[in-house]
Amino acid sequence: MVVEWKEREHDAVDAMALEDEACMDALRDCGLKKFFLTSYLRAQPELLQFIVDAWDIDDQVFCLRDQTLELDVSDVYFITGLSRRWARPILTGSRPFGEKMGEVMDRVCPGAQFRRNSAKVDIATVPDLVLEVILFTITRTAGVQVPHEASKNHLLQAAKCLNPTLFDWATTMTTNIKRQLWLYSSLLIINNI
Questions:
Q1: 81 by DSSP, 3-state: which?
Q2: Is the pLDDT of residue 149 over 80?
């Protein structure tokens, strides 16, 4: 089974963000700027296929020749530049929070719209460039399947990012990378490849 990867699909927004000082300041203040500036690995399918093939699903390590390499937070920090201190952001699952998605959307990103046939926000409709870029970067960090829509957790985290608060993005991303590697490896096993 060959893993297919999509290219970055919002280059125009990224170009505007690079020229916008407030946007770059907001990304820096929440610990996402270096990661935002890191090129996408999705543009390198051979490398990603190699990584997936080298992953040992049972031991949760990479097997290269006769060596095993563990993936830890320090590795993700080094590769991505994501901060690894302070509170871990919650990007998946549900949180005990009284507001409904529509209420959070109205408070955090008034004017944005839901994606078609979805209960998530279409990030491209967020009228504020800084918030739009933070949401795109959060969904990229979270490794979501549909990086153009934001969940309630993503909106709540983005609202926190608008204040100068750093987060432990590296630990969150390490967990997400391992989850995705496990998922892809499981698919390969299921399909007897």
A1: coil
A2: yes
Name the DSSP letter for residue 127.
S
> What does the pLDDT average to over 163-167?
82
Sign (positive/negative) of CA torsion 69, 176, 34, 55? Answer: positive
Which residue has 């985290």 as its token pair? 157
**What is the β-pairing status of strands 55-56 and 61-64?**
antiparallel
C-alpha to C-alpha distance for 123 and 79, rounded to whole angstroms: 26
Token representation of residue 176: 């997400």
Structure tokens, 154: 């993503």
| pTM, 2 dp | 0.72
Two tokens, residue 1: 């089974």
11-19 vs 21-29: helix axis angle to the nearest 10? 90
| Token pair for 74 | 């320090």
Strand order from edge to edge, sheet including 113-114: 113-114, 121-122, 149-150
Q: How many CB atoms lie within 10 A of CB 95?
A: 9
- Residues 125 and 158: their CA atoms lie apart, in Å, by 15
Strands (E), 23-73: 55-56, 61-64, 67-70
